[in-house]
Design a protein that fits this description.
The chain is α+β, with helices and mostly antiparallel strands. It folds into 3 domains: 2-71, Phosphatidylinositol 3-kinase Catalytic Subunit, Chain A, domain 1 (Ubiquitin-like (UB roll), Roll); 78-155, Roll (Ubiquitin-like (UB roll)), CATH 3.10.20; 167-242, Ubiquitin-like (UB roll), CATH 3.10.20.90. Helices cover 15% and strands 31% of the residues. It is built from 4 helices and 15 strands. The protein has helices at residues 22-33, 104-115, 158-161, 194-203; strands spanning 2-6, 11-15, 40-44, 47-48, 66-71, 82-88, 93-99, 122-126, 129-130, 148-153, 167-174, 183-189, 212-216, 219-220, 237-242. The strands form 3 sheets. A 5-stranded mixed β-sheet has the order 2-1-5-3-4, covered by helices on one side. A hairpin with a 2-residue loop joins strand 3 (40-44) and strand 4. It holds the Pfam family ubiquitin. It comes from Artemisia annua. Residues 1-60, 83-158, 168-240 form the Ubiquitin-like domain. This is Ubiquitin-like superfamily protein.
């Protein structure tokens, strides 16, 4: 598949496949243009493409898509440089690029986007110390280049893990591909699944009959999982695009 990488001064046409990760795309750009991967931010329609995901996670990327490349320069401020860390679960691990000034809460958000693990289920440890205050920065806990952070998942009884349903107020933003880009305010139970949300929108004739993909915080939502499972909160935006997702 052919895409175009756009900057303020030049255009790079590149052959890629949908299974390539964003970090692999950045590596190609570094080879072609000499721009360090740590200085690159890639985005489509103001959606930042995250390193740990691949092109299949972004249904808006198709043949001929223009991807914007922003080149970030922070040579004057060491504390704001990007660092590579490892996030380790009991049976898997992920390498993530973060900013040293990011908070623990921000890191949990990235882990959720990358792995799908509910934020409320995570407990993070570094060098045996629990990173229990979400507002504190990673550097406050001594996290540096190549640090390994351990993720423990809270094991709770079902009655605790599944609190009573509550109402959520959020906005569904449709894409311009649906003829009119529209903001649809909704109030539904947080126990509702994505499929139930789709059926509600169709029943109210707020969207035409078709196949759709729902996205929350740059992650494709799963049909049979609840809004609570996806971490949807009051005031959040869900984005809807025409299409389906299939994995080989």
């Amino acid at each position: 598949m052919r895409i175009q990488i756009l900057t303020d001064t030049y255009v790079l046409t590149m052959e890629v496949n949908m299974q390539e990760t964003i970090i692999e795309i950045k590596r190609k750009i570094e080879n072609f243009l000499g721009v360090p991967m740590s200085s690159q931010t890639l985005s489509v329609c103001d959606w930042e493409l995250l390193d740990g995901l691949d092109l299949e996670d972004y249904p808006i990327v198709t043949e001929g898509t223009n991807i914007d490349l922003t080149i970030n320069h922070f040579p004057f401020l060491e504390n704001h440089r990007q660092i590579q860390i490892t996030v380790k679960f009991s049976s898997r691990k992920h390498n993530i690029e973060v900013d040293k000034t990011e908070t623990v809460g921000s890191l949990k958000e990235k882990i959720h986007i990358l792995d799908g693990t509910p934020i409320k289920q995570m407990t993070l440890f570094f060098l045996g110390v629990e990173m229990e205050e979400d507002y504190r920065s990673l550097s406050d806990y001594g996290v540096g280049e190549f640090s390994e952070i351990i993720v423990f998942l809270k094991t709770m009884s079902r009655s605790v893990a599944e609190p009573p349903s509550r109402k959520l107020r959020f906005v569904v933003q449709t894409s311009s591909a649906l003829h009119d880009s529209t903001c649809i305010p909704l109030e539904v139970k947080d126990s509702s699944t994505v499929n139930e949300l789709r059926e509600l929108l169709l029943a109210k004739k707020l969207i035409p009959l078709d196949d759709y993909i729902f996205i929350h915080k740059q992650r494709i939502m799963r049909e049979n999982c609840s809004l609570r499972w996806h971490g949807v909160e009051n005031g959040d935006y869900l984005y809807i695009f025409k299409g389906t997702v299939s994995r080989g």
